[in-house]
Amino acid sequence: MHLLNETNEPWPPPLPESQGFVAPPVPSVSEAVLAFAKALLGDPTGGIHVILRGLGVLVLAATCIPLHLLWRKIGAHSPWSRRFMTGATRLCGIRVKIIGKPAARKTFFVSNHLSWTDALILGGLTGGVFVAQDGIAKWPVLHFICSLNDTVFVRRSDRLGVVGQIDEMRTQFERHKRLILFPEGTCGDGRRLLPFKPALFAMLTPAPADTVLQPVVIDCDEPGRNLAWLGLETGAANCWRLLARSGSWEVRVHFLDPISPGAFADRKSLAMHSRTVMAKRLSETLGGRRVL
Q: In the chain, which end has fewer C-beta atoms inside a 10 angstrom radius, N or C?
């Protein structure tokens, strides 16, 4: 359903059609190098931005990862994963503004989702562990980086395995005290909220003692919304488009009032209430436009 805005154009704008899209296989090293060379020849200026930002992230990773592993080896709490994500956010050209503040106690964060950079932003701000779809695990480098932060990989198609996935979420939550979920299950464009998938809210019914759920709204400026990862665009293409641009863009992260999970009868009502308060705040960021 689309409404008309003041210019008689559909609101929100329709999303790119991705029905039936099958992600391409993970490329070999030679295929990745060839694709990068073609992209560089097609956009030399953008390629320079990609190379400089990429080198910055590599240097940051080469510093933070050994220290992170050392901290873990000696049994100490490691700050290095969080520092890596904060630094990588800046290297991507993202200026982060915080509205509200993360809850101080055991917190299950739920956020809308525009891009892979959301993980860098929220990880840097909260130090939380992510719940992510298992498709990410197919990329060796990404899987390694995610494993350093104890990411919980879930298989959305595996309904019989939900109980085991919930148990893993509970285990990581007890270790880290903060878990981050993107309940839409995919990326939107920052102008709407897609339907929430309530299955993984089951971790909170019943919730571990003293746990709160905190809704989070990621609100980008227009350049940021236009960089959302949508439709048939591959992860590599979106990464190039995001890193190749000059300048920076602003992301405003709204930490809304924490919710007590025990006040809700089941996971569906908890997910519905979370979505309602997030839609209200997102509407406010869009100048009062209705968020469906």
A: N
Q: Residue by residue, what is the 3-state secondary structure of 73-113?
A: HCCCCCCHHHHHHHHHHHHCCEEEEEECCCCCCCEEEEECC
pLDDT tens per residue, range 185-231: 889 999 999 999 998 899 998 888 899 999 999 999 988 999 999 87
C-beta neighbour count of 142 within 10 angstroms: 17
Burial class (CB in 10 A: 0-12, 13-18, 19+), 180: buried
Which residue, among 197, 187, 130, 208, has the nearest Cα to 162 in the 3D structure?
197
Hey, what CATH class is 44-285 in?
alpha beta
Q: How far apart are CA 140 and CA 48, in angstroms?
A: 25
Domain ranges of the chain: 44-285
Tell me the C-alpha to C-alpha distance, in Å, between residue 128 and each of 49, 118, 122: 29, 12, 8
Cβ atoms within 10 Å, residue 146: 19
Q: CA 90, 49, 222: angle at the middle one, nearest 5? A: 60
Would the pTM count as exceeding 0.85?
yes
d(C-alpha 117, C-alpha 89), whole Å: 7
- With beta carbons less than 8 A apart as the criterion, state whether 213 and 267 touch: no
Which 8-state DSSP code applies to residue 248? -
